[in-house]
Amino acid sequence: MIPFSWRGVFKETDGESKRRMDDSGKELFFIISAPSGTGKTTLLKKVIEELPGLQFSISYTTRPPRANEREGEDYHFITPSVFQMMVERDEFLEWAEVLGNLYGTAEKDVNALRSKGMDLILDIDIQGAKKVKEKVDSTVLIYILPPSLNDLQERLVKRGLDSPDIIQFRLAQARRDIEEAKWYHYLIVNERIEDTVEKLKAIIIAERCRRDKNPILDEKKKQWEENHGKNHC
Ligand code: 5GP
Question: Of 63, 80, 92, 214, whose CB is crowded by the most CB atoms within 10 A?
Answer without folding.
Answer: 92
